[in-house]
Amino acid sequence: MRAVICLPTYNERENLELTLRELEAVLETGDRVVVIDDSSPDGTGELADRLAGELAFVDVLHRAEKHGLGPAYLAGFRHALACGAELVFEMDCDRSHDPRDVPRLRAAAQEADLVLGSRYVEGGAIRNWGLVRRVVSAGGSLYARLVLGVPVKDLTGGFKCYRRRVLERIDLDAVRSRGYAFQIETTYRALRAGFRVVEVPITFVDREVGGSKMSRAIVLEAIWKVPALRLRALRGTL
User: Which of these, 33, 35, 37, 49, lies nearest to 10 by C-alpha position?
Assistant: First the structure.
């Protein structure tokens, strides 16, 4: 099945080329990567255009402003669907997700509708994170799992593989989350729609170059968004 990997970027100039070169080694015939750049001031967008001229599998979407992770992925999803993708991946460009894991998620998608690269199932791991970051991440996933009443252990992870039918069903126009709540919301919508979601263990490695995009606003959005999603589900409006 043809796959498109969505790679949102903001100030990832130092990581982009290596990520694309490593993805080239695991792509199958007809697969593509779409870089979604939010007008990075460090020149990431210009580098993406140059690489697209060298690498035939690369597309680039330029967005005028930085509007958050969620809207960037939605733009990538729509591009992927328009390109005829049967599998649509989410992946970070900061080197935290290993391109060599793409075939593992792809294989799992043969028997599932949504595959999550999971840090919190058996065999999953996190490297190079301090205690505070680990507590915030694990606590956020646990909080979302308990409030939403779902069995998924890594609800906030951003390494995912969707079957086309999932994105066509969950009403992308209704997804409003902008930060990491986007990961929670899309997975929850898939579960609510009856799709089969599985978790594949991955090793997550903290970025070595560049700065984290985590902010207080992103954390606060996830805190209020989770009970709001649950309430909408109980009311039958999700």
Answer: 37
